[in-house]
Structure formats: structure tokens, C-alpha cells
Amino acid sequence: MTDTRRRLLNALSAADGPVSGPTLADRLGVSRAAVWKHVEALRDAGFEVESESEGYAVRSLPDYGAAAIAFGLDAPYAVEYHDRLSSTNDRARELATEGETDTVVVAGTQTGGRGRLDRSWHSPPGGVYASLLCRPDRPPAHAPVFTLAAAVAVTRACREVGVDAVIKWPNDVLLGGDERKLAGILTEMEGEADRVSWLIVGVGANVDVAAADLPDGATSVRAAGHGEGSEAVDRRRFCQRVIETFHTLRTDPEAVLPAWREYAATLGRAVRVETPAGVVEGEAVDIRFPGSLVVCTDGGERVVHAGDCEHLRPA
Prior knowledge:
With 315 residues, this protein is an alpha+beta fold. It folds into three domains: 3-60, Arc Repressor Mutant, subunit A; 66-263, 2-Layer Sandwich (BirA Bifunctional Protein, domain 2), CATH 3.30.930; 270-311, SH3 type barrels (Roll). It has helices at residues 3-14, 21-28, 32-44, 66-70, 88-97, 144-160, 221-226, 235-250, 256-263, and strands spanning 48-52, 55-60, 78-85, 103-110, 128-134, 165-168, 172-175, 181-191, 196-205, 270-275, 278-288, 292-297, 300-304, 308-311.
């Protein structure tokens, strides 16, 4: 989507009613003929844009896609959409090497989606698969806090549609109670000694995925909230809320940990964490900036910076 078209969408979404062609032309710095051409392009993309005596007004949106996600998005990110993609993180990495930033790569399906430790991530139709590319002014050691921020963002998006989502350290969003997986987070970065060059946070969320397409141990937002035969969850709005909440937390990293603790299923649990240095087993008691898990073991308190966490008893 061109920058002018994105600004046109923003102008139409922010208005309480129709916006005249001359007003749009003045705001965008283009001719009225150019405004008309961009409106026609939006119609071709699936927007129902009415031409009224007072001006242009959007009456309905396409179900999903770059323009639909960008419409009304309250965060300064460009959106790139693909019906089918090997990996949104891989595409975001390509954009990072080209110097891009503040971009979200979204795919309808992924053929090579992956999670932590190079595990494959099943990405059938109906999910929200999005990678957020940014360049935070932070040292590389702070990268884990952005994983926590994305987990909070996904959890809040789930809860806004009535799903009791909780977070398992370090990167899983689960359904409260039976702890079936709803979503996962994969963060990748490149940095220098004192600052992050670029950071990508990939989100894979089972939003409207059919039950037959889900792997063992997983569920979807739709099935968890209202049952398999219920009305579809609005993937567009779900994706927007993840982006918006992540952006808010990204600009205030100190607010991430309190938000994460509010939704944490890991704290207060007996856990077994496989780390590069060996297994740590005990009770998870806290989280420390930028995202380390504090575990109380028989031998004393251990601070785990990275690892694969298993909950050993139900909440």
C-alpha cells in the first residue's frame, strides 16, 4: 500500500462523517483526480466507499488484508500482507536488511512458520500470523522484554473477545484451565554491543482455525470463546489490537513486567526449566527485567534467563 493511500485511509477512518474531495486533496497534498484514483483503488481492494454530496465515506471493509488492517489502526506501522508466505519473520528480516522499520508483515497462511528452538509452527487458514519489525533504542540484552510485551498484547486481544487467556513463560499464550495453546511468540534481532539494530516479534495465534486443523494440545480463540460453530472472530480487529497494545508497551518497557505478571500462569507454579546449563526445577516466584524467570529451588533462588519451561502441576 502506498503512503498516500494509507494516509487517505487514516483520514477517512478518523472522520465522523463524509470527507470532501477538496479536503482530502488538501490534507494529502495531491490533486482531486489523484484522490479519486486512490478511492477507486480502495474499492478494488474490497472497501465500500460511497460518494455522497458531502464527500467520501467508508461503509464496509474487506474481511482481511493490508488495507483492512491499516484502516483505523491506532499505531504508526505500515502493513504488508500476503495470502500465503513461507514465514512472516523471514519476510520481516528481508525488510530489516533493506532499512525498513515500523512495519508489520501479515500472512493468511504460512508454509514454513516456526517457533522457538526451530520448532515448526502449524499455520493453517484462520490464524493471525504477524511479524512486527521495529528498531527500539535499547541494548540487545533488553530484547526479552519485547517478547513479554507481545505475549501481553495477544493475551489482551484474546480477553477482549471473551477468552480466558494466560501466559506461560517465556513465549506461550494458553487457555486458562486446561492450558491448551492459543498462540506463540518468536523474537529475533540483530544488534551491536550497545544497541539493537533491528528487532522482529513474530506472533502466531490460533484465532479462527478449524478444530480439525489444530495440532494436539492446541485450541483456537473462536472455539475457546464461543464454540466451534459460533460466529467468526474478527481477525482484522484482533490483529489491530495486538499491534496497538504491543506499540504502547514498546514505548514504555517498564510497564511490561507488571502487565505480564497480571496474566502469568507460570508464577506460583512448580516448573521444570531446561536451560543451556542444565535443568532448573522448583517454584516460579517472579519475573525480572528484561524477562528472566526467578525459580525457588531446594538449593536456593535461581534466575533463569532462557529455557524451555514445563508446568509440573495444575494451577
